Amino acid sequence: MTVTCSSCDKNAILKRPKTGDALCKECFYFAFEEEVHHTIINANLFVKGETVAIGASGGKDSTVLAYVLKVLNERYKYGIKLILLSIDEGITGYRDDSLETVKRNEQQYEMPLKIVSYEELYGWTMDAIVKQIGLKNNCTFCGVFRRQALDRGAMMLNVDRIVTGHNADDIAETVIMNILRGDKARLRRCTAITTGTEGALPRSKPFKYTYEKEIVMYAYFKKLDYFSTECIYSPNAYRGFARTYIKDLEKIRPRSIIDIIHSGESLSFKKEVKMPTQGTCTRCHYISSNDICKACVLLEGLNRGLPRLGIGKTHKERRKVNK
């Protein structure tokens, strides 16, 4: 039986995972783009004249983000300049291939591209780090280094803001992870659409309320050029367990993703609960809530042949460094 698009008279070819609406391709594109625009406008993400760096990995999220921001910037005259910023972690057979996708995006979307590498910034590649630390804690190194590398690359480019492709699923996963870890500081800020406003470079998430499944559908129907292979070092990542849990919830109740985000937004803490204050690292001078940032502690461990330095909160080698 033919199903009619709920927004026009054409035949519907898809059902939106987020709302359950039956839509034709064109109506889906418009609904998807308008929801992202609505998020941008409601959160006042951009100021006319800003230069914005898009954290580009070559994956579906950042590729769709770059494409949609280009469309919306032209449609609604945001007046911003968009630049692609990629981090090369040094993972042979994964990041080198995905960066080729980003280089094609550079030409397809007519955006400048800057690539910054771990080797350039830290003197280490993830391949070399994994040889030392193994596969158990490698994601800790990569996550810490990547966050700082994005800031460093953005500062090299002298941009006003970074945007990343973190979607609703990612944020819901992070809420669950921080609850399980009892991480009050991260739980408080993980649902914020913009972070880093307290003196650091602002970092925003235009896809905060956008479902991963819809990003995949948009990329598929638009025939966008993106890299779809998962990182070869992340099969045992802690986030993977939270992701499986979220996917199971979504099957039962699609609104679960948004509900978890709203729950995170509604959390409040007693005034007497002490939260870490943002400062700068005494070594590298990048943002940190400790005198020495996690990136510097991890890097010192690697350089001293103590790769577990900085893994966990009370490791004896880290206590030595902080004395």
From TrEMBL:
Residues 279-309 form the Cytoplasmic tRNA 2-thiolation protein 1 C-terminal domain. Plays a central role in 2-thiolation of mcm(5)S(2)U at tRNA wobble positions of tRNA(Lys), tRNA(Glu) and tRNA(Gln). Directly binds tRNAs and probably acts by catalyzing adenylation of tRNAs, an intermediate required for 2-thiolation. It is unclear whether it acts as a sulfurtransferase that transfers sulfur from thiocarboxylated URM1 onto the uridine of tRNAs at wobble position. Pathway: tRNA modification; 5-methoxycarbonylmethyl-2-thiouridine-tRNA biosynthesis. GO terms for molecular function: ATP binding; nucleotidyltransferase activity; tRNA binding. It is found in: Cytoplasm. It is an enzyme of class 2 (transferase). Residues 52-234 form the tRNA(Ile)-lysidine/2-thiocytidine synthase N-terminal domain. ATP binds at residues 55-57, 61, 87, 165, 170. Belongs to the TtcA family. CTU1/NCS6/ATPBD3 subfamily. One of its GO terms (biological process) is tRNA wobble position uridine thiolation. This is Cytoplasmic tRNA 2-thiolation protein 1. Keywords: ATP-binding, Cytoplasm, Nucleotide-binding, RNA-binding, Transferase, tRNA processing, tRNA-binding. CDD domains: CTU1-like. It comes from Lottia gigantea (Giant owl limpet). InterPro entries: CTU1-like_ATP-bd, CTU1_C, Ncs6/Tuc1/Ctu1, Rossmann-like_a/b/a_fold, TilS/TtcA_N, tRNA_thiolation_TtcA_Ctu1, UPF0021_CS.
